[in-house]
Protein backbone atom coordinates (compact mmCIF):
# COMPACT_ATOMS: atom_id res chain seq x y z
CA UNK A 1 0.00 0.00 0.00
CA UNK A 2 1.24 3.48 -0.89
CA UNK A 3 -0.02 6.89 0.19
CA UNK A 4 2.12 9.66 -1.26
CA UNK A 5 1.29 13.37 -0.73
CA UNK A 6 1.30 15.27 -4.02
CA UNK A 7 -0.15 18.46 -2.63
CA UNK A 8 1.97 20.94 -4.56
CA UNK A 9 5.05 21.26 -6.71
CA UNK A 10 8.43 22.25 -5.22
CA UNK A 11 9.17 25.96 -5.47
CA UNK A 12 12.77 26.00 -6.67
CA UNK A 13 12.98 29.72 -5.85
CA UNK A 14 12.93 28.49 -2.23
CA UNK A 15 14.85 25.21 -2.54
CA UNK A 16 14.55 22.80 0.42
CA UNK A 17 18.28 22.80 1.10
CA UNK A 18 18.26 20.46 4.12
CA UNK A 19 16.06 17.91 2.34
CA UNK A 20 18.31 18.04 -0.72
CA UNK A 21 21.36 17.79 1.55
CA UNK A 22 20.00 14.63 3.20
CA UNK A 23 19.28 13.11 -0.21
CA UNK A 24 22.79 13.98 -1.37
CA UNK A 25 24.33 12.48 1.79
CA UNK A 26 22.43 9.20 1.30
CA UNK A 27 23.35 9.02 -2.37
CA UNK A 28 27.04 9.77 -1.74
CA UNK A 29 27.26 7.17 1.03
CA UNK A 30 25.74 4.60 -1.29
CA UNK A 31 27.94 5.49 -4.28
CA UNK A 32 31.23 6.08 -2.47
CA UNK A 33 31.22 4.18 0.81
CA UNK A 34 29.01 1.25 -0.21
CA UNK A 35 30.39 1.08 -3.74
CA UNK A 36 32.50 -2.05 -3.08
CA UNK A 37 29.96 -3.55 -0.69
CA UNK A 38 28.99 -6.47 -2.92
CA UNK A 39 32.58 -7.43 -3.66
CA UNK A 40 33.49 -7.45 0.04
CA UNK A 41 30.42 -9.48 0.90
CA UNK A 42 31.20 -12.00 -1.83
CA UNK A 43 34.77 -12.33 -0.50
CA UNK A 44 33.43 -12.98 2.98
CA UNK A 45 30.92 -15.58 1.76
CA UNK A 46 33.59 -17.26 -0.36
CA UNK A 47 35.65 -17.64 2.81
CA UNK A 48 32.57 -18.93 4.63
CA UNK A 49 32.15 -21.69 2.05
CA UNK A 50 35.83 -22.48 1.32
CA UNK A 51 37.01 -22.55 4.93
CA UNK A 52 34.54 -25.26 5.88
CA UNK A 53 32.70 -23.01 8.34
CA UNK A 54 29.50 -23.20 6.33
CA UNK A 55 29.56 -26.99 6.26
CA UNK A 56 30.33 -27.12 9.96
CA UNK A 57 27.37 -24.90 10.83
CA UNK A 58 25.02 -26.55 8.34
CA UNK A 59 25.86 -30.01 9.68
CA UNK A 60 25.17 -28.87 13.23
CA UNK A 61 21.87 -27.34 12.13
CA UNK A 62 20.74 -30.49 10.32
CA UNK A 63 21.66 -32.59 13.34
CA UNK A 64 19.59 -30.32 15.56
CA UNK A 65 16.71 -30.55 13.09
CA UNK A 66 16.83 -34.33 13.20
CA UNK A 67 16.72 -34.17 17.00
CA UNK A 68 13.81 -31.74 16.82
CA UNK A 69 15.82 -28.91 18.32
CA UNK A 70 15.13 -26.47 15.44
CA UNK A 71 12.65 -26.05 12.63
CA UNK A 72 13.85 -26.80 9.11
CA UNK A 73 14.59 -23.32 7.70
CA UNK A 74 17.36 -24.23 5.22
CA UNK A 75 16.78 -25.31 1.66
CA UNK A 76 18.72 -28.44 0.61
CA UNK A 77 20.83 -26.60 -1.95
CA UNK A 78 21.08 -23.28 -0.11
CA UNK A 79 24.09 -21.18 -1.04
CA UNK A 80 26.55 -19.62 1.43
CA UNK A 81 24.62 -16.34 1.68
CA UNK A 82 21.36 -18.09 2.49
CA UNK A 83 23.01 -20.35 5.05
CA UNK A 84 25.06 -17.62 6.72
CA UNK A 85 22.27 -15.05 7.10
CA UNK A 86 19.62 -17.70 7.70
CA UNK A 87 21.50 -19.17 10.65
CA UNK A 88 22.30 -15.77 12.10
CA UNK A 89 18.63 -15.10 12.13
CA UNK A 90 18.39 -17.99 14.65
CA UNK A 91 19.93 -16.45 17.79
CA UNK A 92 19.23 -19.43 20.06
CA UNK A 93 20.99 -21.82 17.73
CA UNK A 94 23.94 -19.44 17.30
CA UNK A 95 24.25 -19.10 21.09
CA UNK A 96 24.45 -22.88 21.44
CA UNK A 97 27.05 -22.96 18.67
CA UNK A 98 29.10 -20.49 20.70
CA UNK A 99 29.03 -22.73 23.75
CA UNK A 100 29.76 -25.86 21.70
CA UNK A 101 26.53 -27.47 22.84
CA UNK A 102 25.44 -28.45 19.31
CA UNK A 103 28.87 -29.48 18.00
CA UNK A 104 30.07 -33.10 18.09
CA UNK A 105 33.38 -32.53 19.89
CA UNK A 106 35.61 -30.01 21.59
CA UNK A 107 37.86 -30.12 18.54
CA UNK A 108 34.93 -29.06 16.34
CA UNK A 109 34.07 -26.29 18.79
CA UNK A 110 37.67 -25.03 18.77
CA UNK A 111 37.72 -25.13 14.97
CA UNK A 112 34.37 -23.34 14.77
CA UNK A 113 35.57 -20.64 17.19
CA UNK A 114 38.69 -19.97 15.09
CA UNK A 115 36.86 -19.91 11.75
CA UNK A 116 33.99 -17.88 13.19
CA UNK A 117 36.42 -15.20 14.44
CA UNK A 118 38.04 -14.98 11.01
CA UNK A 119 34.63 -14.77 9.33
CA UNK A 120 33.73 -11.92 11.69
CA UNK A 121 36.86 -10.07 10.55
CA UNK A 122 35.77 -10.49 6.93
CA UNK A 123 32.26 -9.25 7.71
CA UNK A 124 33.59 -6.22 9.60
CA UNK A 125 34.76 -4.93 6.21
CA UNK A 126 31.17 -5.06 4.87
CA UNK A 127 29.71 -1.61 5.55
CA UNK A 128 26.08 -2.55 6.17
CA UNK A 129 27.17 -5.30 8.59
CA UNK A 130 29.53 -3.05 10.52
CA UNK A 131 27.43 0.13 10.63
CA UNK A 132 23.88 -1.22 10.61
CA UNK A 133 22.03 -1.73 13.90
CA UNK A 134 22.62 -5.21 15.35
CA UNK A 135 20.54 -5.32 18.54
CA UNK A 136 22.30 -8.47 19.76
CA UNK A 137 25.72 -6.82 19.29
CA UNK A 138 24.87 -3.15 19.72
CA UNK A 139 27.17 -0.22 18.91
CA UNK A 140 25.90 3.23 19.92
CA UNK A 141 27.20 4.92 16.76
CA UNK A 142 24.97 2.74 14.59
CA UNK A 143 21.89 4.59 15.87
CA UNK A 144 22.95 7.33 13.43
CA UNK A 145 24.93 5.49 10.78
CA UNK A 146 22.23 2.92 9.99
CA UNK A 147 19.89 5.55 8.57
CA UNK A 148 22.37 6.54 5.84
CA UNK A 149 22.89 2.98 4.51
CA UNK A 150 20.80 1.11 1.95
CA UNK A 151 20.57 -2.45 0.73
CA UNK A 152 20.51 -1.64 -2.97
CA UNK A 153 19.70 0.96 -5.61
CA UNK A 154 15.97 0.22 -5.49
CA UNK A 155 15.95 0.63 -1.69
CA UNK A 156 17.81 3.94 -1.99
CA UNK A 157 15.66 5.35 -4.82
CA UNK A 158 12.39 4.43 -3.12
CA UNK A 159 13.42 6.10 0.11
CA UNK A 160 14.78 9.23 -1.56
CA UNK A 161 11.62 9.72 -3.63
CA UNK A 162 9.54 9.67 -0.45
CA UNK A 163 12.00 11.97 1.30
CA UNK A 164 11.84 14.52 -1.53
CA UNK A 165 8.05 14.47 -1.82
CA UNK A 166 7.41 14.83 1.91
CA UNK A 167 10.60 16.58 3.01
CA UNK A 168 10.21 19.69 0.90
CA UNK A 169 6.66 20.21 2.20
CA UNK A 170 7.84 19.91 5.80
CA UNK A 171 10.95 22.05 5.28
CA UNK A 172 9.06 24.93 3.69
CA UNK A 173 6.59 24.76 6.56
CA UNK A 174 8.95 24.69 9.59
CA UNK A 175 12.41 25.31 8.14
CA UNK A 176 15.49 23.14 7.67
CA UNK A 177 16.87 23.00 11.25
CA UNK A 178 13.65 21.64 12.79
CA UNK A 179 13.22 19.19 9.93
CA UNK A 180 16.77 17.89 10.44
CA UNK A 181 16.27 17.55 14.19
CA UNK A 182 13.11 15.46 13.86
CA UNK A 183 14.51 13.46 10.95
CA UNK A 184 17.51 12.39 13.03
CA UNK A 185 15.43 11.92 16.18
CA UNK A 186 12.97 9.71 14.31
CA UNK A 187 15.76 7.51 12.96
CA UNK A 188 17.58 7.31 16.30
CA UNK A 189 14.50 6.50 18.40
CA UNK A 190 13.28 3.94 15.86
CA UNK A 191 16.70 2.29 16.06
CA UNK A 192 16.56 2.37 19.86
CA UNK A 193 13.10 0.79 19.79
CA UNK A 194 14.57 -1.98 17.66
CA UNK A 195 16.75 -2.93 20.61
CA UNK A 196 13.60 -3.62 22.61
CA UNK A 197 11.45 -5.17 19.91
CA UNK A 198 14.16 -7.43 18.46
CA UNK A 199 16.87 -7.47 21.09
CA UNK A 200 18.29 -10.85 20.05
CA UNK A 201 18.53 -10.05 16.34
CA UNK A 202 22.00 -10.14 14.82
CA UNK A 203 21.04 -9.20 11.24
CA UNK A 204 21.69 -5.45 10.77
CA UNK A 205 18.88 -2.97 10.29
CA UNK A 206 19.67 -0.28 7.71
CA UNK A 207 17.89 2.41 5.73
CA UNK A 208 16.38 5.87 6.04
CA UNK A 209 12.82 4.54 6.15
CA UNK A 210 12.16 5.22 9.85
CA UNK A 211 13.54 8.77 9.59
CA UNK A 212 11.39 9.38 6.51
CA UNK A 213 8.41 7.93 8.38
CA UNK A 214 9.04 10.63 10.99
CA UNK A 215 8.72 13.21 8.20
CA UNK A 216 5.42 11.63 7.17
CA UNK A 217 4.06 11.74 10.74
CA UNK A 218 5.28 15.33 11.09
CA UNK A 219 3.65 16.30 7.77
CA UNK A 220 0.25 14.82 8.69
CA UNK A 221 0.14 16.73 12.00
CA UNK A 222 1.44 20.05 10.66
CA UNK A 223 -1.02 20.09 7.76
CA UNK A 224 -3.76 18.79 10.03
CA UNK A 225 -7.21 19.47 8.61
CA UNK A 226 -5.85 20.97 5.39
CA UNK A 227 -7.35 19.22 2.39
CA UNK A 228 -4.36 17.70 0.58
CA UNK A 229 -4.07 15.79 -2.66
CA UNK A 230 -2.36 12.41 -2.51
CA UNK A 231 -1.68 9.39 -4.69
CA UNK A 232 -2.72 6.00 -3.32
CA UNK A 233 -2.13 2.48 -4.47
CA UNK A 234 -3.68 -0.68 -3.02
CA UNK A 235 -2.67 -3.76 -4.99
CA UNK A 236 -3.41 -3.01 -8.64
CA UNK A 237 -5.84 -0.21 -7.75
CA UNK A 238 -4.47 3.35 -7.78
CA UNK A 239 -5.87 6.85 -8.06
CA UNK A 240 -5.66 10.39 -6.68
CA UNK A 241 -7.82 11.68 -3.85
CA UNK A 242 -8.23 14.61 -1.47
CA UNK A 243 -8.60 14.33 2.28
CA UNK A 244 -7.48 16.09 5.47
CA UNK A 245 -3.75 15.47 5.97
CA UNK A 246 -4.29 14.20 9.52
CA UNK A 247 -6.33 11.31 8.12
CA UNK A 248 -3.17 9.90 6.55
CA UNK A 249 -1.54 9.36 9.96
CA UNK A 250 -3.83 6.59 11.28
CA UNK A 251 -3.79 4.93 7.84
CA UNK A 252 0.01 4.95 7.69
CA UNK A 253 0.39 3.93 11.32
CA UNK A 254 -2.31 1.27 11.17
CA UNK A 255 -0.73 -0.31 8.11
CA UNK A 256 2.74 -0.44 9.69
CA UNK A 257 1.43 -2.02 12.92
CA UNK A 258 -0.69 -4.51 10.97
CA UNK A 259 2.27 -5.48 8.75
CA UNK A 260 4.54 -5.78 11.78
CA UNK A 261 2.14 -8.24 13.44
CA UNK A 262 1.26 -10.22 10.29
CA UNK A 263 4.36 -10.27 8.08
CA UNK A 264 6.70 -11.64 10.74
CA UNK A 265 9.13 -13.15 8.23
CA UNK A 266 9.55 -9.95 6.22
CA UNK A 267 12.94 -8.24 6.04
CA UNK A 268 11.14 -4.86 6.25
CA UNK A 269 11.28 -3.34 9.74
CA UNK A 270 7.64 -2.29 10.08
CA UNK A 271 8.04 -1.68 13.81
CA UNK A 272 10.74 0.92 13.13
CA UNK A 273 8.45 2.61 10.60
CA UNK A 274 5.66 2.78 13.20
CA UNK A 275 8.00 4.31 15.78
CA UNK A 276 9.24 6.84 13.22
CA UNK A 277 5.66 7.88 12.40
CA UNK A 278 4.88 8.29 16.11
CA UNK A 279 8.02 10.37 16.71
CA UNK A 280 7.18 12.66 13.78
CA UNK A 281 3.58 13.09 14.91
CA UNK A 282 4.65 13.94 18.47
CA UNK A 283 7.28 16.31 17.06
CA UNK A 284 4.56 18.07 15.06
CA UNK A 285 2.42 18.50 18.18
CA UNK A 286 5.40 19.84 20.11
CA UNK A 287 6.14 22.41 17.39
CA UNK A 288 2.50 23.53 17.24
CA UNK A 289 2.35 24.11 21.00
CA UNK A 290 5.92 25.15 21.88
CA UNK A 291 7.22 26.77 18.67
CA UNK A 292 4.12 28.03 16.82
CA UNK A 293 6.01 30.97 15.27
CA UNK A 294 8.31 28.57 13.44
CA UNK A 295 5.38 27.42 11.27
CA UNK A 296 4.98 29.23 7.95
CA UNK A 297 1.20 29.60 7.96
CA UNK A 298 1.21 31.30 4.57
CA UNK A 299 2.85 28.29 2.91
CA UNK A 300 0.71 25.89 4.92
CA UNK A 301 -2.58 27.40 3.75
CA UNK A 302 -1.47 28.32 0.22
CA UNK A 303 -3.55 25.65 -1.61
CA UNK A 304 -6.74 26.73 0.15
CA UNK A 305 -6.08 30.37 -0.64
CA UNK A 306 -5.27 29.53 -4.24
CA UNK A 307 -8.47 27.51 -4.57
CA UNK A 308 -10.49 30.41 -3.13
CA UNK A 309 -8.77 32.89 -5.47
CA UNK A 310 -9.41 30.63 -8.44
CA UNK A 311 -13.10 30.49 -7.52
CA UNK A 312 -13.15 34.31 -7.27
CA UNK A 313 -11.45 34.63 -10.67
CA UNK A 314 -14.02 32.31 -12.19
CA UNK A 315 -16.78 34.42 -10.63
CA UNK A 316 -15.20 37.61 -11.99
CA UNK A 317 -15.08 36.05 -15.47
CA UNK A 318 -18.73 35.10 -15.25
CA UNK A 319 -19.81 38.56 -14.08
CA UNK A 320 -17.82 40.30 -16.80
CA UNK A 321 -19.28 38.03 -19.49
CA UNK A 322 -22.70 39.08 -18.21
CA UNK A 323 -21.53 42.77 -18.25
CA UNK A 324 -22.22 43.06 -14.51
CA UNK A 325 -19.22 45.31 -13.96
CA UNK A 326 -20.42 46.80 -10.67
CA UNK A 327 -20.45 43.34 -9.10
CA UNK A 328 -17.12 42.31 -10.66
CA UNK A 329 -15.21 45.42 -9.55
CA UNK A 330 -15.07 44.73 -5.76
CA UNK A 331 -13.98 41.13 -6.40
CA UNK A 332 -11.17 42.39 -8.63
CA UNK A 333 -10.08 44.91 -6.01
CA UNK A 334 -9.95 42.11 -3.43
CA UNK A 335 -7.79 39.95 -5.72
CA UNK A 336 -5.48 42.90 -6.34
CA UNK A 337 -4.76 43.16 -2.61
CA UNK A 338 -2.56 40.07 -2.99
CA UNK A 339 -1.34 40.85 -6.53
CA UNK A 340 -1.31 44.66 -6.83
CA UNK A 341 0.74 44.64 -10.06
CA UNK A 342 -1.02 41.84 -11.91
CA UNK A 343 -1.56 43.22 -15.46
CA UNK A 344 -4.44 40.86 -16.21
CA UNK A 345 -6.38 41.86 -13.09
CA UNK A 346 -5.66 45.56 -13.62
CA UNK A 347 -6.85 45.39 -17.22
CA UNK A 348 -10.08 43.74 -16.09
CA UNK A 349 -10.56 46.39 -13.40
CA UNK A 350 -10.07 49.11 -16.01
CA UNK A 351 -12.68 47.50 -18.25
CA UNK A 352 -15.12 47.48 -15.32
CA UNK A 353 -14.76 51.26 -14.82
CA UNK A 354 -14.44 52.66 -18.34
CA UNK A 355 -18.21 52.71 -18.96
CA UNK A 356 -18.39 55.65 -16.52
CA UNK A 357 -15.52 57.92 -17.60
CA UNK A 358 -16.39 60.67 -15.12
CA UNK A 359 -16.46 58.37 -12.09
CA UNK A 360 -13.84 58.36 -9.36
CA UNK A 361 -13.37 54.63 -9.94
CA UNK A 362 -12.41 55.26 -13.56
CA UNK A 363 -9.96 58.07 -12.78
CA UNK A 364 -8.51 56.20 -9.81
CA UNK A 365 -7.97 52.99 -11.76
CA UNK A 366 -6.37 54.79 -14.69
CA UNK A 367 -3.99 56.68 -12.40
CA UNK A 368 -3.12 53.46 -10.54
CA UNK A 369 -2.19 51.72 -13.79
CA UNK A 370 -0.31 54.68 -15.26
CA UNK A 371 1.97 54.76 -12.21
CA UNK A 372 2.91 51.08 -12.38
CA UNK A 373 6.66 50.37 -12.10
CA UNK A 374 8.40 47.73 -14.18
CA UNK A 375 9.19 47.49 -17.87
CA UNK A 376 8.02 44.01 -18.87
CA UNK A 377 6.07 43.67 -22.11
CA UNK A 378 2.68 43.06 -20.45
CA UNK A 379 2.97 46.12 -18.22
CA UNK A 380 4.19 48.33 -21.07
CA UNK A 381 1.27 47.27 -23.27
CA UNK A 382 -1.24 47.81 -20.45
CA UNK A 383 0.12 51.29 -19.74
CA UNK A 384 -0.06 52.34 -23.37
CA UNK A 385 -3.57 50.96 -23.88
CA UNK A 386 -4.89 52.59 -20.70
CA UNK A 387 -3.20 55.92 -21.51
CA UNK A 388 -4.79 56.02 -24.96
CA UNK A 389 -8.19 55.16 -23.55
CA UNK A 390 -7.85 57.62 -20.67
CA UNK A 391 -6.73 60.48 -22.92
CA UNK A 392 -9.74 59.97 -25.20
CA UNK A 393 -12.43 58.99 -22.71
CA UNK A 394 -11.83 60.76 -19.37
CA UNK A 395 -14.39 63.35 -18.33
CA UNK A 396 -14.13 66.20 -17.92
CA UNK A 397 -10.41 65.64 -18.69
CA UNK A 398 -7.55 63.33 -17.67
CA UNK A 399 -6.13 63.87 -14.19
CA UNK A 400 -2.39 63.70 -14.71
CA UNK A 401 0.02 65.54 -12.44
CA UNK A 402 3.41 66.83 -13.55
CA UNK A 403 5.40 63.90 -12.22
CA UNK A 404 3.17 61.41 -14.01
CA UNK A 405 3.35 63.32 -17.31
CA UNK A 406 7.13 63.45 -17.45
CA UNK A 407 7.45 59.83 -16.24
CA UNK A 408 5.06 58.66 -18.95
CA UNK A 409 6.86 60.75 -21.58
CA UNK A 410 10.21 59.13 -20.75
CA UNK A 411 8.61 55.71 -20.61
CA UNK A 412 6.94 56.10 -23.99
CA UNK A 413 10.26 57.26 -25.46
CA UNK A 414 11.94 54.04 -24.30
CA UNK A 415 8.92 51.98 -25.34
CA UNK A 416 8.79 53.45 -28.85
CA UNK A 417 5.30 54.93 -28.44
CA UNK A 418 6.47 58.02 -30.32
CA UNK A 419 3.11 59.69 -31.03
CA UNK A 420 2.18 59.64 -27.35
CA UNK A 421 5.68 60.76 -26.34
CA UNK A 422 5.55 63.73 -28.79
CA UNK A 423 2.13 64.68 -27.51
CA UNK A 424 3.29 64.73 -23.90
CA UNK A 425 6.49 66.60 -24.81
CA UNK A 426 4.46 69.30 -26.58
CA UNK A 427 2.27 69.65 -23.49
CA UNK A 428 5.32 69.90 -21.25
CA UNK A 429 6.89 72.59 -23.43
CA UNK A 430 3.85 74.82 -22.86
CA UNK A 431 4.40 74.63 -19.09
CA UNK A 432 8.07 73.72 -18.90
CA UNK A 433 8.59 75.42 -15.54
CA UNK A 434 6.54 72.62 -13.96
CA UNK A 435 8.73 69.86 -15.40
CA UNK A 436 12.27 69.52 -13.99
CA UNK A 437 12.97 66.61 -16.35
CA UNK A 438 12.09 68.62 -19.48
CA UNK A 439 15.62 68.40 -20.89
CA UNK A 440 15.75 64.63 -20.37
CA UNK A 441 12.39 64.21 -22.12
CA UNK A 442 13.49 66.28 -25.13
CA UNK A 443 16.73 64.31 -25.43
CA UNK A 444 14.94 60.99 -24.97
CA UNK A 445 12.37 61.84 -27.60
CA UNK A 446 14.95 63.13 -30.08
CA UNK A 447 17.06 60.00 -29.60
CA UNK A 448 14.05 57.67 -29.97
CA UNK A 449 12.91 59.40 -33.16
CA UNK A 450 16.42 59.35 -34.63
CA UNK A 451 16.97 55.68 -33.76
CA UNK A 452 13.71 54.74 -35.45
CA UNK A 453 14.54 56.55 -38.69
CA UNK A 454 12.76 59.89 -38.18
CA UNK A 455 15.57 62.51 -38.17
CA UNK A 456 13.34 65.34 -39.38
CA UNK A 457 10.92 64.79 -36.51
CA UNK A 458 13.83 64.50 -34.09
CA UNK A 459 15.57 67.74 -35.09
CA UNK A 460 13.02 70.27 -33.68
CA UNK A 461 13.08 68.64 -30.24
CA UNK A 462 16.89 68.53 -30.16
CA UNK A 463 17.14 72.17 -31.29
CA UNK A 464 14.58 73.23 -28.70
CA UNK A 465 16.67 71.46 -26.08
CA UNK A 466 19.76 73.44 -27.14
CA UNK A 467 17.82 76.68 -27.06
CA UNK A 468 16.28 76.17 -23.63
CA UNK A 469 19.09 74.31 -21.83
CA UNK A 470 22.33 75.09 -23.66
CA UNK A 471 24.67 74.35 -20.76
CA UNK A 472 23.47 70.98 -19.51
CA UNK A 473 24.75 67.49 -20.15
CA UNK A 474 21.64 66.80 -22.21
CA UNK A 475 22.60 69.65 -24.56
CA UNK A 476 26.04 68.14 -25.15
CA UNK A 477 24.43 64.82 -26.02
CA UNK A 478 21.97 66.60 -28.33
CA UNK A 479 24.83 68.32 -30.19
CA UNK A 480 26.51 64.98 -30.74
CA UNK A 481 23.31 63.46 -32.03
CA UNK A 482 22.69 66.37 -34.43
CA UNK A 483 26.24 66.12 -35.76
CA UNK A 484 25.68 62.42 -36.38
CA UNK A 485 22.38 63.11 -38.14
CA UNK A 486 23.61 65.92 -40.36
CA UNK A 487 27.35 65.53 -40.42
CA UNK A 488 27.96 69.12 -39.39
CA UNK A 489 28.68 71.30 -36.41
CA UNK A 490 25.86 72.55 -34.26
Comma- or semicolon-separated keywords:
Rhomboid-like fold, Serine Threonine Protein Phosphatase 5, Tetratricopeptide repeat, 4 domains, elongated
Describe, in plain words, how this protein is organized in 3D.
This protein is mainly α and 490 residues long. It has four domains: 2-33 and 149-298, Up-down Bundle (Rhomboid-like fold), CATH 1.20.1540; 37-146, no CATH class; 303-399, Alpha Horseshoe (Serine Threonine Protein Phosphatase 5, Tetratricopeptide repeat); 413-490, Serine Threonine Protein Phosphatase 5, Tetratricopeptide repeat. It contains 24 helices and three strands. Strands 1-2-3 form a three-stranded antiparallel beta sheet. Strand 2 and strand 3 (237-244) form a beta hairpin. Helix 3 crosses helix 4. The mean pLDDT is 91.
Task: Write a concise synopsis of the structure shown.
The chain is mostly helical and 490 residues long. It is built from 24 helices and 3 strands.
Distance between the terminal alpha carbons, to the nearest Å? 84 Å
What's the total helix number?
24
Overall 3D form = elongated
Task: Give the low-confidence spans.
Answer: none
- Give me the Rg, rounded: 38 Å
What proportion strand?
under 5%
Number of strands: 3
What is this structure's SSE topology?
Layout: E1 2-5, H1 17-33, H2 37-50, H3 53-66, H4 80-88, H5 91-99, H6 106-124, H7 127-131, H8 142-145, H9 153-174, H10 176-197, H11 209-223, E2 227-234, E3 237-244, H12 248-262, H13 270-290, H14 297-300, H15 302-321, H16 325-338, H17 343-353, H18 360-370, H19 377-393, H20 402-415, H21 418-430, H22 438-451, H23 455-468, H24 473-486
Antiparallel strand pairs: 1-2, 2-3
Amino acid sequence: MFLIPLDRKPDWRRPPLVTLGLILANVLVFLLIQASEQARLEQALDYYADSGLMELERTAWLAERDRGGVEDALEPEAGPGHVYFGLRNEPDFMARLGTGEVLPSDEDHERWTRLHAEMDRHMERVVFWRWGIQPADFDLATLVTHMFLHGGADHLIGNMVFLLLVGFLVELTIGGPLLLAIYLLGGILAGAADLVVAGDRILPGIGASAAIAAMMGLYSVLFGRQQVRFFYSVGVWFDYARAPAILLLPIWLGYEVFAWLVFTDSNIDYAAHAVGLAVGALGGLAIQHLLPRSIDREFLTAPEREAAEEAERDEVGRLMRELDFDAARPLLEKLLEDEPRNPELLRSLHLCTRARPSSEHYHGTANRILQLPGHDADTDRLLLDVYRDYRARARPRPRLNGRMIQTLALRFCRQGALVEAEELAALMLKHRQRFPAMAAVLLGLGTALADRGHPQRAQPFLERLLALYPGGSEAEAARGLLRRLHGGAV
